[in-house]
Structures are given as C-alpha cells and as structure tokens.
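Work Package 3 (structural annotation) set out to generate three-dimensional models for the target panel prioritized at the project kickoff. During this period the team completed the workflow that converts sequence records into discrete structure tokens, so that structures can be stored uniformly alongside our sequence database. As a representative example, we reproduce one entry of 83 residues exactly as it appears in the project archive.
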Amino acid sequence: MSDILSHLDNGVLTLRLNRLFKKNALTKAMYTALTEGLAQASEDETVRVVVISAEGDDFCAGRICHFIRMTASTMTICRCSGS
C-alpha cells in the first residue's frame, strides 16, 4: 500500500499521509510524492483545491516537518522546526 494516498473528487485533490506505524513521519519518498502531486495539481485545470491530511490520529511525527505552499505561479518549500 502507498504511503501517500491521492483522491480527486469534484475539483478537490486530497493527498493523505498513510504511514500509520511511524505516525506518518515523512520519508524522502513521501516528500517526493507530495511534491510531485502538488506539481501535477498545478498543471491540472480541474483541480481547484488541494487538501493535505493524514490517516490515523497523527498528522506527521518528527522534529522537522516540511510544509509545501503552492501559489498560482510557483511552488515554495518551507521548513519549520517543531518543538
């Protein structure tokens, strides 16, 4: 089963973290899949909204989480340190 689930419904693309046994901690492959999913969404005129969520009780465990922000013309990757 994939660590990133993707579903498009009525213009809403949902990218869902699916690595429950590690509390959805991001791997390099997951980070790449999220980045690629957002890049594809920016090229798809049917996608109006992107929702990033997670299976289970934990969104994303880990000391450093990567957040991806996409605007109309660019995609910016931001890093913030957790406490």
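Confidence is low (pLDDT under 50) at residues 63-68, 70-74, 76-83.
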